[in-house]
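Worked example 3 (structure in, sequence out).
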């Protein structure tokens, strides 16, 4: 009889402990959307379209976008933006007296330190690509603004996409 008195409360405590550890109903994809700095969310096929601006006359190549955009939590150059970087490389090779500052930016999600590092990696990716394409390293500077200079303060995917960018700022 005394064994039953001890076992019943122990079983109740174990059941209570196990129920506390149970899944709260959030799916794994919902959980990953909150781990910006530590993991990547599930991939989506919809990317917001962005219209890039061109450089003012005399400040870089004419009729070429001065922005390249990046996917969420990525510093990989998109194949669709490769031609923009190639056009800037060609112009910089033809104008060795000119220099460009590559300004890396992120969207507003994530911590400040993480976003500064991500913005720097994005700017470095563009810088390294320009160097591979023959631009002298002395013409290039990569800096990060992280999430400090948002192009769009909205909180939807289109706004986030406009913020994930590297800007070409000619000197």
């Amino acid at each position: 009889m005394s064994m039953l008195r001890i076992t019943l409360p122990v079983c109740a405590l174990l059941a209570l402990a196990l129920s506390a550890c149970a899944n709260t109903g959030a799916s794994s994809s919902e959980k990953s959307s909150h781990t910006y700095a530590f993991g990547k969310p599930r991939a989506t096929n919809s990317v917001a379209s962005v219209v890039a601006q061109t450089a003012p006359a005399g400040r870089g190549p004419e009729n070429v976008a001065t922005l390249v955009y990046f996917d969420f939590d990525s510093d990989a150059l998109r194949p669709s933006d490769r031609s923009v970087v190639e056009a800037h490389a060609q112009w910089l090779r033809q104008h060795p007296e000119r220099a460009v500052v590559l300004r890396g930016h992120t969207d507003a999600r994530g911590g400040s330190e993480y976003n500064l590092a991500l913005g720097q990696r994005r700017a470095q990716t563009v810088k390294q690509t320009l160097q591979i394409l023959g631009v002298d390293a002395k013409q290039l500077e990569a800096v990060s603004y992280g999430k400090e200079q948002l192009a769009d303060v909205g909180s939807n995917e289109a706004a986030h996409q406009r913020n994930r960018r590297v800007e070409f700022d000619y000197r």
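Notes: Confidence is low (pLDDT under 50) at residues 20-51. The beta strands are 67-69, 100-105, 140-146, 165-170.
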